[in-house]
Write a structure and sequence with these properties.
Its EC number is 3.2.2.27. This is Uracil-DNA glycosylase. It catalyses: Hydrolyzes single-stranded DNA or mismatched double-stranded DNA and polynucleotides, releasing free uracil. The active site is at 65 (proton acceptor). The chain has helices at 7-13, 20-35, 47-51, 88-101, 112-115, 141-155, 166-169, 190-193, 203-213; strands spanning 38-39, 59-63, 119-123, 128-129, 160-164, 181-185. It is α/β, with parallel strands linked by helices. The strands form 2 sheets. A 4-stranded parallel beta sheet has the order 3-2-5-6. A two-stranded antiparallel ribbon has the order 1-4. α7 (166-169) links the parallel β5 (160-164) and β6. The longest helix has 16 residues, at 20-35.
């Protein structure tokens, strides 16, 4: 596994790459990609960082692990490439944005347009074996991404963390709530959304209100 991470991030969390757990993680990921179809493609494993340089980060959305179907995962949580059908969670994200801030439903599921505005779209686990959700949990990715979240909390101020679902909410323990804002809701998956835990959270308008209170430009969702 090539650790191809944007330079500003390397300065922040580069010491993680020298730790024994990360060497072990890289070895296991290389072996997984050699033996099985895995996603995203190797050059996109660290895409969340490439699309959103450290100095641009204003908002963090946390996912669990990449989509595990062919051609879906592109290294940004909840995102798919142009022309790929929208998975159910992404459809519900867009439906809530349409309801909340009045945008037209997006044709493209590529969320790099959000990332370029300062939204870090970070999965807790950055790789997955094809057709096996959660298959790369406990390889060590969570140690790395927890370190990213914790370091962001320590080094930055005024960030907005969107924690959707039980898994993401657990990450609130890594975040200094006195320095940052944390918005929580149910997960956008159909299971959660159909139980009334997603729609109506208004996280898109609330995020923009918080950004504007800080004198920062809103996100064009």
């Amino acid at each position: 596994m090539e650790v191809d991470i944007e330079q500003s991030w390397k300065a922040l969390v580069g010491t993680e790459f020298e730790k024994p757990y990360f060497h072990d993680l890289a070895r296991q990921v290389r072996e997984e990609y050699r033996q099985h179809p895995c996603y995203p493609k190797g050059s996109n494993i660290f895409a969340a960082f490439s699309h959103c340089p450290l100095k641009e980060v204003k908002v963090i959305i946390l996912g669990q692990d990449p989509y595990h179907g062919p051609g879906q995962a592109n290294g940004l949580c909840f995102s798919v490439n142009e022309g790929v059908p929208h998975p159910p969670s992404l459809t519900n994200i867009f439906r809530e944005a349409v309801r909340d801030v009045g945008i037209a439903y997006p044709e493209s599921g590529d969320l790099s347009r959000w990332a370029r505005q300062g939204v870090l779209l970070l999965n807790a686990v950055l790789t997955v074996r094809a057709n096996q959700a959660g298959s790369h949990q406990r390889l060590g990715w969570e140690i790395f991404t927890d370190a990213v979240i914790k370091t962001l909390s320590e080094e930055k101020e005024g960030l907005i963390f969107l924690l959707w679902g039980g898994f993401a909410k657990k990450k609130s323990s890594l975040i200094d709530g006195k320095k940052h804002r944390i918005l929580t809701s149910g997960h956008p998956s159909p299971l959660s959304a159909n139980r009334g835990l997603w729609f109506g959270n208004s996280h898109f308008s609330k995020t923009n209100e918080l950004l504007q209170q800080q004198g920062k430009p809103p996100i064009h969702w």
